[in-house]
Amino acid sequence: MRFAPIPCAVGLLCCVLLLGTVPLGTSFPVQDEGKPGITFLEEVGRLRVGFNWRNLTCPVCKVLFTILDIALLSDVNEERVARAVGEACIRLHLAEERVCRQITELFRDDFIRALQQSLLWPSEACALLVGRSCGRFDIYAPWNVTLPRIPKPPVTPPTPPKPGAPQSRVLFLTDIHWDQEYAVGSSADCKDPLCCRNESGSPSWRQRAAGFWGSYSKCDLPLRTVKNMLENAARTGPWDWVYWTGDIPAHNIWSQTRKQQLSELTVITRLIHSHLGNLKVYPAIGNHESTPVNSFPPPFVRGNRSSRWLYDTMAEEWAPWLPEQALKTLRHGGFYTVEVQPGLRVASLNMNFCAKENYWLMVNSTDPANQLQWLIHILQASEEKGERVHIIGHIPPGLCLSSWSWNYYHIINRYEGTVTGQFFGHTHMDEFQMFYDEATMTRAVGVAFIAPSITTYINLNPGYRVYLLDGNYKGSSRFVLDHETYILNLTEANRQPEGGGVSSLFPSPSQHPIFHPDPNPKWTLLYRASEAYGVSSLFPSDWDGLIRTFVQDDRVFQRFWYLRHKGHVSEPCIDACKTTVVCFLRSGRYDELEKCDQLEFGGDTAVRKTLC
């Protein structure tokens, strides 16, 4: 970690440009372009919308940041520099003019204040944005957590429960992304990072129009779809409890306010409570809950720039679900632990403390809020009591900052006999990531389940997940035994024909299909994992074996690819695409993504990265 006055406040442009490196609303690590890159991140890049940071070359980047350095030596220049950054965003075609100006204004103060407590030179900023060939970026220094000097107990491989043993049914919700401005009939193919809104305009004859229940485009959801999902989920029960891993607001990150964020948090929390009754819900915080997006200062930041405005409201709204001790740590750092049932505990992590896009971590990225050290304390106590622990969070640990990801991986290795479930969201896809023993990286010790989003963003059906767990009885492993994914088929729900006459939704006489939405669409079972993949159990070793099957049997892999997109995918995934996906599935630790060109599965079969 480094604590030094910043000699150059290059941060605001860095912030605006950084938004172009990832899909809005994600926390995927930035790809280093100075060496062969990570193909997974290139695949993610195919979904990027709105910003185009690659218009920035290395020489232009360094000149631009040097000028900003000199200008920002004086506080009186911040306003004019902010205007210049807005102009740069526009001229570099990073976004539409309105979005550039609004996002510059929104991010300006917090980002510059964070950087004034850090150290970021032009070469570091440009290495972050353009690649290692343009400089060196090492502001996130390596660090280690401290494990107790207690030997790891012998690990007994999990076995299926006896026939007839109790099971728990857990509803899993993530990435709702409710858009208050969703407008039926508006353009689904606008130029903004988010469409299907009042400000998206009417579609031209070559553009799609926003559907009643949602749209296959870069659009989020109307509230009626969220309500319909909860109604269907309630009917699909009964449930034993609910895991909910965040991201409530829409992707209009350039025009959000604290008041709006808190209002949406309150509305969705109360909707869940009203539809699911007295059922216990265990939430986790997403990266979109704050504004500016991804802005989660560690607890050492106090006053108006802290996250107290958000955490206090969460504690107030979630009080019916969480005990006072959990609310205390929630107010402190956005994480908590609760005993779900005798023998089972959940630890809800604030994964924003591992995200590179959280610019406050440039001040100090060493175990923010001491969250991982806290987790070790919880796991050690649970190990001693014989408890099993589920970990929930928003961003998958394999997509975190390298040191945070490495330490988390180390913790999972040490407590593999205690942590029997890891549940995340964030990518909007239906996927998973593996954890292997650190000594050989061959024996599977854990799996992080990554559940599909409720939102359609981007080009997806809405969906939610159901986990079937080893149930509530003495000696239960609490492992996931199976899972199901339910979706709303938008083609059927919107009942939109391929052609049609002029809809009354459109004031101009353009050829658009007539909308006849189903007034009460049903969410249907897309698949059950055991049936779809022909496996009898879903322990970590089974998922490792399934990855090997993906490599050897393309038919099974293409089935996974289809289900990964919640039943809405236009083309198969082959060659470099397949290599990318298989690598991602194996990489529960971020640095493992960088070793994909050496990924081997034994025998004559190897998956190698060939295109970057």
From TrEMBL:
This is Sphingomyelin phosphodiesterase. Its cofactor is Zn(2+). It is found in: Secreted. Residues 54-138 form the Saposin B-type domain. The gene is smpd1. PANTHER family: SPHINGOMYELIN PHOSPHODIESTERASE (PTHR10340:SF34). Binds 2 Zn(2+) ions per subunit. The lineage of its organism: Eukaryota, Metazoa, Chordata, Craniata, Vertebrata. GO terms for cellular component: extracellular space; lipid droplet; lysosome; membrane. It comes from Salmo salar. One of its GO terms (biological process) is ceramide biosynthetic process. Pfam families: Metallophos (PF00149). Its EC number is 3.1.4.12. InterPro entries: ASMase/PPN1_MPP (IPR041805), Calcineurin-like_PHP (IPR004843), Metallo-depent_PP-like (IPR029052), Saposin-like (IPR011001), SaposinB_dom (IPR008139), Sphingomy_PDE (IPR011160). It comes from the Eukaryota. Residues 1-27 form the signal peptide. Converts sphingomyelin to ceramide. SMART domains: SapB.
